[in-house]
C-alpha cells in the first residue's frame, strides 16, 4: 500500500520558499567604501594625468669603460695596439659616480637643474620645487635619470628625462663629458701610483750617487791624488830604480875600495852618493807605508780610503742604473695602459614625449587601491566575525 504524504519521512519534506533578497547596510558600506577608496582616487588621478601632468622627453646615452694596452717597441712586429674589454671595477665606480651627489652638484651648477626640472608651473607633482634642497634634488635625480648597467658586458645606458627635449639632451651630454673626465682622472691616478714608488727609489739612488761622488771629489781635493793605484805603481817603479841605483853605487864603492888608495876622493864621493840614495829609498818606503811614521800620511791608508770610496761609488752607480731602469719600465708600462670612455650611443634628441606613462600609472594605481581596499575590508569583516 502506498504511503500518504503525511506519512512521508521528514527528509523528504519540502523546504519553505526563499525570502526575496534586498540590500543590507553592509552591502551599501562596501559600495560606498569602494567608490571612495578606489573609484574616486583613480578618477582624480586620471584627471590630473591627462589635464595637468606635463609631457616628459627622454634622451639616451650609452657607453663603456675601455682599457687600451699599447705594445712596446719590441712588440711592434706583433701588434701595435690591443684594445681589451672593459674593466669591471672601473665600470662599477662609474655606475656609482653617475648616482653620486658630487655629479648632481656639478651638473646643477653647470645647467641649473632647478630651472630645467621646474619649468611646468601647473604640475606640482612631477616637477621639482624651486626651493628644494640638495637631498630633494638627489632624490629627484634618481627618478629622472635612470641608469641601466649590465655587469656581464660592462655596458652602461643612461636615460635622462626632462620637460624639454633639448634640456634632456643637454643633461645627457654633460653627464657623458663628466663621466669621461672621471675615467681619465682614474687613469691618471693609476699611472701616478705605478710610477710614484719607482720615482722615489730613483730619487734615493740619485742622492746616494751624488753623495758618493762628492766624497770622492773631496778625497781627491785633500790628497791631490786622482788615482792612488796609479801613484803607487809610479812610487814602486821609483823605489825599484833607486834600489837598482843603490846596488850599482855599492858595487862601484867596493871596486874603488879595492883598486885605489884609501884617501882617494872618489871613495868619499861614492859613499856620499850611497847615503843620499839610501835616504831617498827610506823616504819612499815611508810614503808606501813600509816603515811607520805618524807624521806622514802613507799611501797604504790613502789606498784603503780610496778603495772604500770606490766601492761606495760603484754601488751607488749600479743602484742608480737599476733604479733608472725600473723607473723607465714603470713609465713605459703606465703609458701602455690607459682607460677611456667609449660611447656607443651618443645623447639622442627626442621628438615625442614618452613620459609620464599615463595608462600604466592609472592601471598600477587602480590595482594598488583595489588591493588595499580588499585587504581593509577583509580585516574589518574578520574582526566583526570574532565578536
UniProtKB/TrEMBL annotation:
One example GO MF annotation: protein tyrosine kinase activity
GO cellular component, one term: plasma membrane
Keywords linked to the UniProt accession: Coiled coil, Membrane, Transmembrane, Transmembrane helix
InterPro entries: Bact_polysacc_biosynth/exp
Coiled-coil ranges (or none): 195-222
Transmembrane intervals: 28-50, 360-383
Family matches, as PANTHER family: FERRIC ENTEROBACTIN TRANSPORT PROTEIN FEPE, TYROSINE-PROTEIN KINASE
Stated name of the protein: Sugar transporter
Organism per entry: Falsiruegeria mediterranea M17
